Amino acid sequence: MVRLKDRYKKEIVPALMKEFGYNNIMQAPGLKKVVLNIGAGEATTNAKGLEAAQRDLSVIAGQHAVITKAKRSISAFKLREGQSIGTMVTLRGQRMYDFVERFINSVLPRIRDFQGVPGTSFDGRGNYHLGLKEQLVFPEIEYDKIDKVRGLQISFVISARNDKEGKRLLELMGMPFQKE
């Protein structure tokens, strides 16, 4: 079985160089990091919910999740500056490639009525953002051990110059985009 990182170096970079006319392999877009985030709005009233979200995210990512704090106070949400409101993990290097490979090959096929991921969730700089409605699609999460179904956001940070290059990189990695 060829790992994603090896496939990136041997197949994907040459394909991108040929398609976009790059002269140097360093010009080819690459995956810089993957950021996983669970926003736990109920953390203001339920501290155990934040701990459970952190535990779930740590199991999914394979590394310790950190707790995120509110940057400013918002009275409409009963939120104070510095209050814990979520949890996140940043994956880089081999763990990042292992996660992306597992995500594409194991997680996405487990989503009910899956028609592909939306191809419009790019931010203009080639980065891709994807939201999942529940963390149960990950095989590492045991259904009996969760207290609540939570949403999860995944951000693929790519060193591309534009959305077209970023989308092509993810397509070559195996990301199943919806037909437009």
Amino- and carboxy-terminal Cα gap: 31 Å
Order of helices and strands: HEHEEHEEH
User: Helicity range of the residues?
Assistant: 25-40%
Tertiary shape:
globular
Given as residue ranges, the uncertain stretches (5+ residues, pLDDT < 50) are none
Mean of residue pLDDT?
83
Decide which structural class fits the backbone. alpha+beta
Percent of residues in beta strands: 15-25%
Can you put this structure into words, describing what you see?
It is built from 4 helices and 5 strands; from the N terminus they run H-E-H-E-E-H-E-E-H. It has helices at 4-20, 47-61, 93-107, 163-173; strands at 31-39, 66-69, 84-91, 128-132, 152-158. The chain is globular. The two termini are 31 Å apart. The model has no long low-confidence stretch (mean pLDDT 83).
Summarize the structure.
The chain has 180 residues and is of the alpha+beta class. The protein has helices spanning 4-20, 47-61, 93-107, 163-173; strands at residues 31-39, 66-69, 84-91, 128-132, 152-158. Helix 1 (4-20) crosses helix 4.
What are the SSEs and their pairings?
Blueprint: H1 4-20, E1 31-39, H2 47-61, E2 66-69, E3 84-91, H3 93-107, E4 128-132, E5 152-158, H4 163-173
Antiparallel strand pairs: 1-3, 1-5, 2-3, 4-5
Helix pairs in contact: 1-4
